[in-house]
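Researcher: Quick test of sequence recovery. Tokens follow.
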């Protein structure tokens, strides 16, 4: 019996990736201009970024609804499927906790249902790479135990290295003070961040885009090994400039 892989939209995988690897995606809710949208379903990342550039209030996100979890889990329970749901970091969203509650409720009704809910402690494409690896194994017919073991190794060794173009967005999202955002923007300060135990943690403050991109590569080279046999994911916030300016979010799987 094959294993079904579920993920939420915070994995930032494209529709093509979801289809190619047979991944079932559950959307988070995006709240923008007083309206609720299903992430990746009724609103796209480009629409969100465009709204931010137009100066609209920063969008907010809400976890996957309990109803969606219950509906998805019950569907697979009735079909007799085995399911692995890999969740967005519990330090950044309540989605994982919501899934665990629905896991307990559904298993009470379907005690033979083989369902596992894992907290990846990863975000965005770093999370997405974990999901893809699990889905690749599922497509080859790997059993649940093997997929769980490999998935755990991947999310425990996933590196996230990223920056933002403008501190104004971090201020609007409540991540930095108004003064820090003003001074940082004035001095062209680019914060370099990473993830630690599922949390977003500042790593360094660097002046200028060219320097921060160079530093990202240096940090990646220092932390990673055997890059010829690694998968490096590059994600960006909708910029249309040259490749290096698209390295707004860079994830490298650490081979150690």
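Model:
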């Amino acid at each position: 019996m094959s294993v079904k892989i579920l993920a939420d939209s915070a994995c930032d995988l494209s529709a093509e990736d979801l289809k190619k690897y047979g991944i079932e995606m559950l959307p988070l809710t995006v709240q923008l201009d007083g309206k609720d949208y299903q992430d990746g379903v009724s609103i796209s990342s480009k629409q969100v970024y465009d709204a931010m550039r137009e100066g609209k209030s920063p969008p907010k996100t809400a976890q996957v609804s309990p109803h969606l979890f219950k509906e998805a889990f019950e569907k697979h329970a009735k079909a007799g499927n085995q399911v692995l749901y890999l969740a967005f970091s519990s330090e950044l969203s309540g989605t994982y906790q919501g899934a665990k509650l629905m896991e307990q409720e559904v298993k009470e009704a379907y005690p033979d249902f083989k369902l596992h809910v894992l907290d990846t402690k990863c975000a965005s494409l770093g999370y997405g790479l974990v999901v893809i690896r699990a889905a690749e194994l599922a497509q080859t017919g790997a059993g649940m135990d093997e997929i769980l073991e490999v998935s755990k190794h991947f999310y425990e060794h996933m590196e996230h290295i990223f920056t933002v173009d403008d501190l104004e967005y971090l201020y609007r999202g409540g991540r930095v003070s108004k003064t820090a955002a003003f001074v940082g923007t004035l001095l062209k300060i680019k914060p370099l961040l990473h993830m630690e135990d599922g949390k977003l943690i500042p790593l360094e403050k660097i002046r200028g885009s060219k320097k921060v991109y160079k530093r990202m590569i240096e940090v990646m080279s220092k932390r990673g090994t055997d890059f010829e046999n690694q998968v490096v994911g590059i994600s960006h916030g909708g910029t249309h400039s040259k490749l290096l300016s698209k390295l707004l979010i860079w994830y490298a799987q650490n081979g150690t």
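The chain has nine helices and twelve strands.
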